[in-house]
Structures are given as C-alpha cells and as structure tokens.
Amino acid sequence: MATRHGRPRRRTLGLxxxxxxxxxxxxxxxSLRPQPLLPEAQASLGAKPDTAFKKxxxxxxxxxxxxxxSVGLIVYPGxxxxxxxxxxxxxxxxxxxxxxxxxxxxxNLAVLDIxxxxxxxxxxPEVTRWAIAGHSLGGAMAAQYVGTHPGVMRGxxxxxxxxxxxxxxxxxxxxxxxxxxDAGADKMASxxxxxxxxxxTVFVPIAGGNHEQMGWYTGQPNDxxxxxxxxxxxxxxxxxxxxxxxxxxxxxxxxPAPAPSVGPPASxGPPASxxxxxxxxxxxxxxxxxxxx
Length: 293
What we know:
The structure is a single chain. The chain has 293 residues and is an alpha/beta fold. The protein has a single domain (39-250), classed as 3-Layer(aba) Sandwich (Rossmann fold), CATH 3.40.50. It is 31% helix and 15% strand. It has 8 helices and 8 strands. It has helices at residues 6-32, 39-43, 87-94, 116-122, 137-148, 185-188, 191-196, 230-250, and strands spanning 52-56, 59-63, 71-76, 99-102, 129-135, 155-159, 173-179, 202-206. Strands 1-2-4-3-5-6-7-8 form an 8-stranded mixed sheet, with helices on both faces. A hairpin with a 2-residue loop joins strand 1 and strand 2. The longest helix is centred in the N-terminal third of the chain and has 27 residues, at 6-32. The chain is globular, with a radius of gyration of 25 Å. The N and C termini lie far apart (84 Å). Residues 15-30 and 262-293 have low confidence and may be disordered.
C-alpha cells in the first residue's frame, strides 16, 4: 500500500527524469545546430555574369551561363555546415566551365548520406566525368564514396580532410588542401594518410590558413585564427581544386586506366651509338620540365 510520503517521492523522481530528458534533448539540438553563415554565403545563392545558379531540393548548383560543360564536381559539406557556406567557392570553380553541386545532408552530417552523389549524378546525364570534393567530415565521406564506388569518380579534392580508409588504388586524380594552422594539419599530411591516398596525390598546404576558412561560416570550435584572409584562402582552394579538375579532363576515356600489359622481353637490338658529351641532345617535344608541378 502506497504511503502518503511515497507519492510525492515518485512525483519528484518523475519530474527529475523529465527534466533530464529535456536537458538531453536541448543538448542534442544545440550540438546539431548548424554554424552561422556569413553574408557572402547568402549572396552567392544567385546567378552572376559568369555563373548560372539553380536550387534543386535542398542542394545548390552553379554552372557556366552557356550550360556547356562535361565535367561535374559534387561537394559534401562539413559537419554542421549548411551547403550555402560553400557557395562563393562553388561560384569560383563553376566560372571556369564546370558544374558544381553542393549536396544537402540530413542534419547537416554527410555521414548520414554517404551516397548522396548517386541522386545528383542521375539528375545530370550530360556530365561525362565526375569528381567529388568535401570539407572535413564531408571530405572523409567523399573519400569513402570513392572507395565504395570504384570507377565512378575520376577526381577527389579533400578540403581539410583525410580518408577513413585506403583508396590508394582507386586511380582518382586526388588533391589534399589544408591550412597549416588547422588543428588537424599534421594528420592530413602524415605518412599514414599519404599511404592511403593515390601515389600521385597533390598536397597543397595553405600557409596561415585554418579549418573554418574552407567555407563562409563562423563559429568553428577549437579552430586557431587564420593569419591570411578568408578570400585569400578560398582563392588558393579554388586554384588547387581547378588543377585537380584539369587532371580529370586530361584522363583517357577509359577509367580507371588499364594496367600496362606485361609481355615477353623485346629482342636486343644493335648497341646504341655513344653520344659525345659535346653533342647537344634535343629535348623531346612536349617534355615536361624537371621542376614542373
């Protein structure tokens, strides 16, 4: 039989449990709240003289006004970062003749929809070559997409990110771009990370750059302040990403490229004539400089 004193105690315990639930829900909501956008992000959501713009669902697309393009870039946002934060960067890239689509993610977490690229590609059959980029968690998930969908993506740009697994044999034209002041910079360029990326991956450290300036948002926790402007860092990110897309355009039609055939050794020919040290040897046409990138 419940005593008169027992009922208030149960009521108090119930109120405490309810309060704990409310606090937990509030903490979860706060932790998932997206980072505030900067005005430049909102201003990018529209057409400009050198780029067209379209919103598809909750994702954003930028492209050249001519609508003539064959290479597309899909961007996965960082955790708790809205797609619009990458609008100014997408505009810079699209102005050079590319389709750039910044994907929207459930709860702004790319880990909840790693295959978001599939629906985007299905919407654009005119694109014949695809690359993928991502910032932070979005970059890790972009790399995971490359690993789990072999032969689909031809290029990968990691913006302040590193792969969660080995994609060294994927054949993609890869670049890793990060600020030297980013708290995770050492991991992004570590020997372990390099081993998990294709051997010809291009690493682009941005002196004085940080994590947050990969986009146009603010409030990134535990991020050291940058010593260069956001616009300067964005320009370097765009340049390095465009270099990756140029490599994608230069790839052969067959992708991944077939492994070189191993045949019987060629029969030895006559010995080569010695070259006099005084005789100049003409350079092969189109040969690259030893100091080339």
